[in-house]
Amino acid sequence: MRVPLPMKLDHVNVFAFRDDDGWTVVDTGFDTSRTRKLWAQLIAGPLGGERVARVIVTHHHPDHVGLAGWFQREHGAELITTRTAWLFARMLLLDEQMVPVDETLAYWRSAGMEDEIFEARKAERPFNYVDIVADMPLGFKRVKQGDVIRFGGRDWDVRIGNGHAPEHATFWSRDCDLVIGGDQLLATISPNLGVHATEPEADPVGDWLESCEALMPFAEDGQLVLPGHKLPFRGLPTRMRQLITNHHTALDRLLAHLDAPRTAVECFPALYRRRIGAGEYGLALVEAMGHLNHLYRLGKVTRTRRDDGAWLWQRRQDG
Predict the structure, then answer these.
(1) Cys staple from 207: which of 162, 229, 266, 270, with CB 3.0 to 4.6 Å?
(2) Residues of 82-96 as b/e, b for ≥16 C-beta within 10 angstroms?
(3) What is the mean pLDDT of the chain?
(4) Tell me, what's the pLDDT at 278?
C-alpha cells in the first residue's frame, strides 16, 4: 500500500502480511489526521476489518515509524524494531524546539548556509519529530543482526544496514523470493546519507557503503525487493552495484571540485548537477556534509575554519 507524504518524495510504501492472529504491518507513514483516516479505510477495506497484531518498523525516520505508537495504543499491536530505532524515536519525541537551538545554527554555519536562508530558518519553528510521530508507549520487541523472525507465514533473516539510518533492519525471506528493503534498498533513487547537528563528525557514506558490501553476498537476481519508496523491483545485485558505483563516482566528482577551498553548500553543483530548490535544500546540505566527512575520514581532503564558522574543504595537495 502507498501512503502519501507532504513533500517532494510524496509517498512511503507500507506492507501488510496476514497471520493467524491478524495482520503484520511493515512501516506506517506519518502521524497525521489524513494518514489515520487512510489507515482506517485500509483496515476496513483491503485488510478485511481484521486487527493489526504487530507493526514492524524498519528504521526510525518519521515516514516509517510515525503511526507505530498509534497502532500500539489504539489497536493493541506489538511493536517490533531494532533497539537503536526505538531509542532514537523515543529520544526525538522528547526534543521539541520552538526555534533552532544554538548547535543547529552552528552546524548550518559550518556547512556554509547562505545568509538569507540562514536568517529565514533561524526565525522559523524547525521540524519537530513530535509533529508527525505518535507518542510511543513503553515496550517493544527487539530484532537484531542474525535473528530469524516469523510473520506472514514465512521465516525472515534479519540483516542490518547503516548509513541512511543507524541499525536499519532489512528482512530476507527463507521461504520465497521476497526481501523487505526499507530505505536501505531502493530501485531508482539513492537513500539520503546525511550528517546532522546531533553527530556532526558522522560518516554515513562510509557506513552505507560498508553495509552494501555486507549485504551484497545475499542479493540474488530473482528476489523481489519491497522498498520503502518507489516500486518493487528485481535485479538486486545489479542495483546494489549501481548504488555503490554512483556514490564512488559522486565522491570522485566532489574531490575534483575541491581544487580550491569550498564550503559544503558550494559543493552542490558537483554532487547534484541540478538546481537545488527550497524543498530539497536541507537534504542536499546534510548529504553534502556526509560526502565531505567521508573524504576527510579517508584522508583525501583537508578542512579549515573560516571566520564565520564555515568549514572550507580542499583536496590534499600531497596526494
Answers:
(1) 162
(2) bebbbebbbebbeee
(3) 96
(4) 85
Query: Quick check: helix, strand or coil at residue 14?
Result: coil
- List of residues 6+ apart from 191 with CB closer than 8 A: 163, 164, 183, 184, 208
Name the band, by pLDDT with cuts 50, 70 and 90, for residue 34: very high
Residue 195's alpha-carbon distances to 227, 237, 263, 294, in angstroms, are: 23, 27, 14, 10
* Strands, sheet with 224-227, edge to edge from the N-terminal-most edge strand: 148-151, 154-161, 168-173, 178-182, 224-227
CA nearest to 69, candidates 20, 10, 29, 97: 29
Q: Give backbone dihedrals phi and psi of 221, rounded to 5 degrees, phi first.
A: -60, -35
Q: How far apart are CA 108 and CA 173, in angstroms?
A: 42
Q: Are 314 and 301 in contact (CB under 8 A)?
A: yes
- Compute the CA torsion angle 294, 286, 158, 19 (nearest 10 deg): -170
Nearest to 62 by CA among 165, 133, 6: 133
* pTM tops 0.85: yes
* Separation of alpha carbons 233 and 217, rounded Å: 18
pLDDT higher than threshold 60 for residue 319:
no
Chain centroid offset of residue 22 CA: 28
State residue 226 phi and psi, 5-degree precision: -100, 100
Q: Go through the chain and tell me how many residues it has.
A: 319
State residue 171 phi and psi, 5-degree precision: -130, 125
